[in-house]
Amino acid sequence: MNRDMNCHEFLVLLDALPARSPGNDARDRLQCHADRCPECAVLLRMHEQLAAESPEELEARVPDELVQGMWSRLSPAVGGAPLVPSGIGRPRPGGRWLVPALAASVLALLFVSAFLFGALREAQGRERDLVAALEHQDVEAGMTGESRRPGRLTVWALRRALHVQSEFTPAQLRNLLEQAAPSLVVVSRERANVLLAKNFHWRALARRGARAGVRLEDGLTAGELIQLLASLGLNPRTKIPRARLIELLAR
Amino acid sequence: MDDAQLTELARRVQGGDAESFRLLVEGETRRLIAMAYRYTGEWETARDLCQETWLKVDRRLFSYDPERPFRAWLVAIHRNTCVSYLRSAAVRHEQPASDEELARLSPPSAGPDAEERLQAGEFVARLRTAMARLSDSQLRVFTLVDLEQLGQKQAARALEMEPSTLRTTLHFARKRLARTIRRMESSP
Q1: Which of A110, A169, B22, B80 has the fewest Cβ atoms within 10 Å of its own Cβ atom?
Q2: A62 and B63: CB-CB below 8 Å?
Q3: Degrees (nearest 5) of the Cα angle A199, A187, A87?
Q4: Among all residues of chain B, which has the CA nearest to that of A209?
């Protein structure tokens, strides 16, 4: 049968073909239709042009110097010198005492944490009772849900609110922060310095913040955190994991 | 480097390990430059786009969830960078490309004959201009399936789209490109 195919059949056959080595018969049938239909001729050419090289072949053609030079181009901008000198990794005099001292510290920590664990369980129980009592008071005072005014959220309530879901979009996070007073300190100076000392990522964030006029090393208010988030230019569909936010807002 | 290794490195970078970031960059740069080249047709520009992507990664790693595969997250950022370039390049280059530019755009396997290569380069340049005129969803589907040569099923998963919707969108994207290129060819 040598009947010419229509445009729909052409597209179906074009899609079904292996991208790079269509059989002669299929190629002839496509060409036969393309000779009569200028739009399909463009589609056939596009298909052949784009499939001319596989991703693997193209990767093999990437000039080596572009790949090798990438880190040296990036390194001044990322993971630069710490804003807060941590001293970690420097050789110290008397290093031979380090291992025994660490072992002793770990043992001491184990004893202390066993004691603290009991105390913590007790405190958590008291916290649950307190939350229940506060929620009861709120219901009695008619301050449920929407009747709460903005600017009332405390840091404690903010941290609790983070546990409602496992990840937040930038807009959800902004909404949450907007429920606190803009001047409310949500990241203390001490916490900020701990983050900056231990992780170059937080330092990168601090550099972004500095460009937006927000100094992470001084701690952050709710208003400043909103400003910092806006300066990151995150995709609205980005999901920020709760763990990262808890890490940021931890005491 | 496989996906699990990349994700583990990204997790370490989040924990403050700058050396792991260097390993990530060295492991994935070739792939990213090759991908960007499909959008730009120029190695230097592809390298610049790759650099821009790594800077975005550095800035946004804060929001990366290590429970998800890192490569998919990285490629999504890089694709957005490339698509933004494509749209802005189309706005910048109102005038037709020079012969030298067109020759550079054509891959060496397009044909041994110089004239043939020039024509292929011209076609690719028109294709890039036409792509910038697609709608967002059409452009996303077309770039994944036809430009990056991802399978349709894989592309549908990456875009969180029904396969039937992807096929329809792809069909309209291709038809629109063909019409636009035809118009460009008939009025040089």
Answers
A1: A110
A2: no
A3: 30
A4: B59
ipTM of this model? 0.76
Nearest in space to B106 (alpha carbons), one of B133, B128, B135: B128
Question: H/E element holding B175?
Answer: helix B163-186
Asked whether A152 and A217 are in contact (CB, 8 A), the reply is no
Chain A within 8 Å of B150 (Cβ-Cβ)? Answer: no
pLDDT by residue, tens only, chain B of 188 residues: 788 889 999 888 888 788 888 999 999 999 999 999 988 888 899 999 999 999 999 888 888 888 888 998 999 899 999 988 888 866 555 444 545 454 555 555 544 566 666 677 778 888 888 888 899 899 999 999 888 888 888 899 888 899 999 999 999 999 999 999 988 888 75
Burial category of A8 from C-beta neighbours within 10 Å (exposed 0-12, middle 13-18, buried 19 and up): exposed
Please judge whether B16 and A67 are an interchain contact, meaning their C-beta atoms are less than 8 angstroms apart. Answer: no
How far out from the chain centre does Cα B86 lie?
Answer: 9
Q: CA-CA distances (angstroms) from residue B178 to A40, A43, A94, A246?
A: 7, 6, 74, 51
Spatial CA neighbour of B86 closest among B117, B53, B122, B41: B41
What sections of chain B are H helices per DSSP? 3-14, 18-40, 43-60, 70-92, 99-105, 114-131, 136-142, 152-158, 163-186
Contacts of B26 (CB under 8 A, 6+ apart): A67, A70, A71
Which neighbouring-strand residues pair with B24? none
On whether the CB atoms of residues A231 and A209 are closer than 8 A, the answer is yes
Residues in A touching B37 (Cβ below 8 Å): 58, 62
